[in-house]
User: Fold Aldehyde dehydrogenase from Planosporangium flavigriseum.
Amino acid sequence: MFVKAVVYEDIRTVGVRDVPDARLEADSDAVVRVTSSAICGTDLHMYDGRTGAEPGLVLGHEPLGVVEQVGPCVETITPGMRVAIPTHLYCGTCHLCARGLTAACLRARPDGIGAAYGYAGMGPYRGAQAELLRVPWADANCIRLPGQPGDAHEDDFVLLADAFVTGWHATRLADVAAGDTVAVFGAGTIGLLAAYSALLQGARAVYSVDGVDARLDMASELGATPVDFRAGDPVDRIRELRTRAGLPIGEEKLDGVDKVIDAVGFQAHDRTHPDRERPNQVVADAARLVNACGAVAVIGVYPEKDLNPQPGETADGRLTVPWGTFFNKGVSVRFGRTHDRRYTTHLRDLITSGRAHPGAIVTHHGRLDYAAELYRQFDKREDGVIKAVLHP
Ligand SMILES: NC(=O)c1ccc[n+]([C@@H]2O[C@H](COP(=O)([O-])OP(=O)(O)OC[C@H]3O[C@@H](n4cnc5c(N)ncnc54)[C@H](O)[C@@H]3O)[C@@H](O)[C@H]2O)c1
Ligand SMILES: [Zn+2]
Ligand SMILES: [Zn+2]
Assistant:
């Protein structure tokens, strides 16, 4: 038997192909019928031919669906349950999983730390932009959800697989606290939901930096202050806004922000030549903008191998970064993939209680057959695409 799936074929080419059915391979597996599966900025790093995806790789790591089948050792999940599946799959019991550090699971990938679906270099797990998905360690990896497929929470819940938890994780890495001032570089899904998460946690002011109109507008709708890098240096602009907001006497040196989040990663645009990439652009801006003793969270991806390295970066992922500035200011810089399981059920409960509505940032929906066009539009930032969700 075959099912339809989105397959990476070549640089900037994906196709919808028949692939063998997902099936139970271990007694602790489940097979999930996918109802929604989002496209992520991480998929674009592969689509753009930068992070070594092999032709034939089934893409996708942001699924929502209904359990179809479970193995004989699965105890808490049964067919018919509606579930979100976190991007980074994990065993749930190893030394790091037991501490909630699931993105670094010691067992999910034989040749490394942590694993993900449909992701070059992150294990053998087939992607989720497909009709069916095999989910290992189903008791740990299926997040139970109320309601029915296609109900009013479908877009909110699909963002529990990655985007909302990653935005939230960024605020935890940056240690955002009530009253903080925060700048988020990048107003893609991850940056927007990091800004939204910071506001939910009581940040006093949140600035969203990007250079795409639709995304800046969305940042504003979510309650952040948009800062367009095409209009000038965003660091100068935010300092100006902070000064205008009124800095208390004696605190004039704190005219930056307390916390900075990099939600762009290595494919950052060079602000002075927006048609070029400059992988260390955001890190350089963050170092200038962060206040003394503040924090920077790097949630955008920086790969260990870039097949087409850009100025300021080497093929093995080394960047020129202002180490001395961070040291002098006493800033902590933290990195990382999302430890999904730490946040998923808390964020689910914020959604079901009506406190959070992350689905507001979903702009496009399409059948699986429409994937090639949605990838193209998303990559080109055409037609106002911020988040596209496929429905297998
Ligand atoms: N750490 C994790 O677990 C995790 C999970 C999901 C995604 N990610 C990563 O997060 C990043 C963002 O994902 P996304 O889905 O929002 O991607 P996206 O491609 O939709 O958004 C990136 C945004 O950054 C903006 N940008 C580019 N250069 C900039 C600059 N110099 N200053 C400010 N903004 C700039 C772009 O205009 C774009 O809107 C990607 O690198 C993705 O791989 C990490
Ligand atoms: Zn993602
Ligand atoms: Zn583990």
Q: What stands out?
A: The chain has a mean pLDDT of 96.
